[in-house]
Amino acid sequence: MGILFMETDELIPHLFRTEYRKIVSVLCRRFGFDQMEIAEDIASDTFMTATQAWGVKGVPQNPTAWLYNVAKNKAKNHLQRGSVFESKVAPEIKKTSSEFQGAEIDLSPQNINDSQLQMMFAICQPIISAEAQIGLSLRILCGFGIEEIADAFLTNKETINKRLFRAKEKLREEKIKIELPNETEIDERLTPVLITIYLLFNEGYYSVSQNNTVRKDLCLEAMRLCTMLIENKNTNKPQVNALLALMYFHASRFDARLDKNGELVLYEDQDPNLWNADLISKGGYFLNCAASGNKLSKYHLEAGIAYWNTQKADTKEKWESILQFYNRLLQIAYSPIAALNRTYALSKANTKQEAIAEAEKLNLTCNHFYFMLLGELYTGIDNEKAISNFKTAFSLAKTQADKRAIQKKIDKL
Amino acid sequence: MEAPSPEQLQGYMKQYHDWVGGIAAQNKFSGGTGLSTEGKVLKPNNVITDGPYAEIKETIAGFIVIKAKDFDEAVSLAKDCPMLLGEGNIVEVRKITGVHNND
Asked: Domains in chain B and their CATH numbers?
């Protein structure tokens, strides 16, 4: 009995992670956003029923099929209750009780896949905030618990619940349909979907959350969602492949970025032997797939930069390539971090002097990375200036990890 | 004039890209592109000729639209344009005016 409980204990969270999102997507698509909460309730209930039943009777032969059956029955009951209610309140709608026959819930692999893709497009809408898009994606598309989402965002369950509730209201108000966009608008509609996937990945990759397992899961989920887009021929576009390549390249350094104590290891101090060669080659594969069409997205450029970052050797070619990618990236998507990184690449590809002159034009004096860059550039040219810039960076740095990294630089000089 | 070698051309392109990248890094780039030397010239009465260089010496190599707070800043950004390293080349700075924008 004890062993059985332990098995169930491990099996159910696992199945929750892989199956909850599928059931929710299929039910949401069937019910519409109006009854999104009911879809979520039915899916949660299904797992509750499983926990109780499997604890007593043991785990069924095919747990997934068992879950789907229970979910189907619960959904059917719900639809039937709904139609009985409707026929009593509004007898004239009685003829539409074809819903009764249409109560069959389709949990075939094809429909699960279609439903998840459609939900992706339905949730990733600029009308709700980026945070809410990520939160809803984590809940509906990735099957994360509210507590895990709160942990990823370093906030509490209540805040996340409120955020998700408001986002769902908004989707209802705007009458967002759960469907795949048609071919002519796919590129446009993919834009917010890719932004959300990228944010989801970054949330995992750069998050201040200490929970490393959750962080890694966020990255893997982002990659899984992106892979789903690639597996569908309508959404298998160059920019989607570029984004997946970018994420593979970054993910290859996931383990090398943290030391035994969970402290961040800077790129230059990382051991390339810890970089995952398999993930790097997958990134290369998808970057190749991205090289078609005539549009150069920011993901192409970032993937190009990320590729070169997987090459540790300090060659002229590496830095010249990175510099030119940044030159173009900044033209289509400016960000302070890209501007700083571009200036660093300039110092490597051209000269430190030229980079210092360019850095001084950047006007990013609130940013501690700006002073770290200047400190780096002045090192070896004017060490006193280097130290004073590192000290300014130290005073502006917000996290202890950043302060420690800067202090190390000062100590070296 | 001798045509530049591929290596020279590549060097010019790099200088140009680095210059544009520098403007973009200051978040002051807003658009623009190089222009091919191929073109057509249209004149009144439906006259179309290959060109545009048959009759005039000057050609436009490209244009860039930047965001500058005033004319002086625009001029100082333009001063670094590597085109100016070439004898006889000029860079012209103009303010963009439009029906929607009178200032």
From this structure: 6-85 (3.30.70.1060)
